[in-house]
Amino acid sequence: MKRYILTGTPGAGKTTILRRLAALGYATVEEAATAVIADQHARGDVEPWTRPSFIDKIVALQRRRQLQSITTAQHVQFFDRSPICTHALSTYVGHPISSALSAEIDRITREQIYDRHVFFVRNLGFCEPTAARRISFEDSLTFERLHEETYRAFGYHLVEVPAGPVSERVATIRTLISQLTDV
Fold it and tell me: Would you tell me how many other CB atoms lie within 10 Å of the CB of residue 19?
């Protein structure tokens, strides 16, 4: 089974691309951080990312979703972010890298969970705020660079998905997937 990560800055269109891939029949796994933020907001915590426990909640949900995805019969799966993204997030918000995050990165590396080719979805030139996304466009560019550096530091190869219409971005990914799975 091939598991591919979609990563990039907040607001780059990863979730939109993921949903389009799902509509085309691919197995997909949604981003965990947004779900954790929504859950914490529902509990009255308006800034959950300010607490180090936020990172461990993301890691736990990412792991649970990845393990649940094993039951799919699909040959190719797409994940909206990974524990490597969570490492970048932890660094960005100034939290120490927790033992849970380190252990999960060790596990996904040891078990070769994700393909080493990661789809890096480039920013669209803006970043719209949402309840979960409270970052300026300028700060999102810093976060984008941090993601690049983090993935490279862990030995992943970034495959560029340039800004453009969703249909073109999905076509780019599908073309690259056919090349990568034929290797």
Answer: 15
Residue 30's nearest CA partner among 75, 82, 72 is 82
pLDDT per residue as tens digits for the range 43-94:
999 888 888 899 999 999 999 999 888 766 568 999 999 999 999 999 999 9
Domain interval for residue 19: 2-182
- Global confidence as pTM: 0.90
For residue 75, give every residue at least 6 positions away whose Cβ sits within 8 Å of its Cβ, in sequence order, or none.
Answer: 1, 2, 181
Which domain CATH number covers 61? 3.40.50.300
Total number of domains in the chain? 1
Please give the sequence-ordered ranges of beta strands (E in DSSP) within the chain, or none if there are none: 2-8, 27-29, 76-80, 117-121, 157-161
